[in-house]
Specification:
This protein is mostly helical. The protein has a single domain (10-416), classed as Up-down Bundle (Growth Hormone, Chain: A). Helices cover 76% and strands 1% of the residues. The chain has 17 helices and two strands. It is globular.
Length: 428
């Protein structure tokens, strides 16, 4: 029996949340790992830039497809079972990818990884809605992104050094075994609601009417609200930019056009992701403190659009300026975390998990579309240059490819202006 006046201690709440966030960390690590293995993957599987973009994007195909069912399952099954199953399948996908003899098997591994870790972010948000006070939700969401970016940092210089030392296949295989251990920990320790530990829950009880919603009825209900449409389109431009650059094409771009070593390029890519990680909780906490969602979201979107525009259209930037612009773009990208609190407040609380899943589908649609599209443009604009068996693309080719990202980023900056402010208050 839950104690009516006793909410769970913060250390217990953070522990529950932290196990879910660990799977999100692993998912982010797997998401950007191809960025530091581009040459190895292209040579092992004999693929072009378009082929590499498609291999990386297989993660996003299943990730995006899983977002709506993930949100619905989080509302109905609870995060414990969902996160455990996700970690188990992610471990299997990691093993298949690490041992893949052909492109087909590698693609299958990436598909399984993407579809399974798709449950991590929404599952973690579901835990946060039960274990934390509403005023802490945006902060917890931002810190979840921070944990994810820590995974991306491990997929930077540390992964590059390990790949150089022992090869990419052993590293990916061991990563899969670590994921299996995380699945066991989630099943043993995570509980869906504080009431299972004798504490009072922060999540309001679902109404009888809402719990009887069918899947399609729940989705229809969410899309009755204008903010849902806008907030689902906006983050694709933000995340499409940062994950297309730092998640795949940034390293070869920096090596070719700024004369950085693979390790230096990976380090700078990781620094962009660290800035993103810092920007998430910073923007989430600041938005909570302001009691507003829209103004800060607008500022962040305009800032990152300007920064990426300068990087893409002006060649030969001084290194300090390039680093400053990349870090500014990363920091401003953290503003996308506001969207999760924004959409949660824009629909009834009973549909929060479903809304988060639909929003996360919009988030990952950006890199899903942009990574292979940029690769296709690079191949189209390739002039035949090859060094050590790897294709070399001109700055002009990258400019054409990255311009696709900027179009979506511009659209995102415009759409934020049409959202309806919630003033950090939950819709009834």
């Amino acid at each position: 029996m839950a104690k009516s006046d006793n909410y769970p201690p913060l250390r217990l709440a953070w522990f529950m949340w932290g196990l879910g966030a660990t799977l999100y960390l692993i998912g982010f690590y797997q998401r950007v790992a191809p960025a530091v293995m581009t040459n190895e993957l292209m040579q092992d599987f004999a693929i072009s830039a378009a082929g590499l973009g498609n291999l990386s994007a297989f993660y996003f195909y299943s990730y995006v497809a899983m977002q709506t069912p993930t949100g619905i399952l989080a509302d109905r099954l609870g995060p414990r079972r969902l996160l455990t199953m996700g970690a188990l399948v992610a471990s299997l996908g990691g093993l298949i990818f690490g041992l893949a003899p052909t492109m087909m098997w590698a693609s299958l591994g990436r598909l399984l990884i993407g579809g399974s870790v798709a449950v991590a972010f929404v599952g973690t948000l579901k835990l946060a809605s039960h274990w934390f006070a509403p005023r802490q939700f945006a902060l917890a969401t931002g810190l979840a992104l921070f944990c994810g970016i820590i995974g991306a940092v491990f997929a930077g210089v540390p992964l590059r050094l390990l790949v150089t030392t022992v090869g990419w296949r052993p590293v990916m295989t061991v990563s899969a075994l670590i994921t299996l251990a995380v699945a066991a920990a989630i099943w043993l320790f995570v509980r869906d609601d504080p009431s299972e530990k004798g504490y009072r829950s922060y999540c309001p009880e679902s109404s009888e009417e809402t719990t009887k919603f069918s899947i399609t009825a729940g989705i229809r209900e969410i899309f009755r609200y204008r903010n849902t449409w806008l907030l689902c389109l906006i983050p694709g431009g933000v995340v499409g930019c940062i994950l297309t650059f730092s998640g795949l094409w940034g390293v070869p771009f920096l090596i070719t056009h700024y004369d950085l070593s693979p390790e230096q390029a990976a380090a700078l890519n990781s620094a962009i992701l660290v800035a993103w990680a810092i920007g998430g909780p910073l923007c989430g906490g600041l938005s909570d403190r302001m009691g507003l969602r829209k103004p800060l979201y607008v500022i962040c979107n305009v800032t990152l659009l300007i920064a990426w525009g300068i990087i893409v259209f002006i060649p030969g930037l001084p290194m300090p300026l390039l680093i400053g612009l990349l870090l500014s773009a990363g920091l401003a990208s953290g503003g996308m975390i506001i969207g999760f609190a924004f959409i949660k407040e824009s629909v009834p609380s009973d549909l929060g998990g479903t809304a988060s899943g639909i929003l996360n589908m919009g988030v990952m649609a950006g890199p899903m579309v942009m990574q292979p599209a940029v690769g296709w443009i690079l191949d189209l604009k390739w002039h035949g240059a090859v060094i050590d068996g790897s294709k070399i693309y001109s700055f002009s080719a990258y400019r054409y490819g990255f311009s696709l990202m900027l179009v979506w980023a511009l659209l995102s900056a415009i759409l934020v202006l049409f959202t309806k402010e919630t003033y950090c208050q939950q819709t009834n």
